[in-house]
User: What shape does this take?
Amino acid sequence: MSTVADKLAKKSSNKTSAKQVRLRLVYIDFWSAVKLSFLAAIAIAVVTVVSFLVVYLVVQTTGLIDEADAFFTSFTDGSILLSDFVSFPQVLAFSAVVAILNLVVVTVLGAVVAGIYNLAVKVTGGLLVGFTSN
Assistant: This one.
């Protein structure tokens, strides 16, 4: 009786000739680069917000903010507390602002890199890429 491993071994022993092609990348479409960098920026924005919230929850759970408040009140009059500035709504708002700014910067940077590559191709001739067909 034949097992799956035997069938896979038979398939791998039959070598098919893979055609190799070497192509040169001479142009990156501007709008494709903008769309791709925007999607990457959305992923980075989500990671940014989640990481800010996780760090805040860890700091809040361990009591570091309360210890910092006690430290600051030891040499001040106690009118300014760190917990007034570092609370869940402030952390959420700050992380949203950072994520939105990062979204804009990464999207623009993707477009700029595509433009610079398209200009550099005129000097260098492009990037040589190899492909095979299976």
About this structure: The beta strands are 19-25, 127-133. The two ends are 29 Å apart (CA to CA).
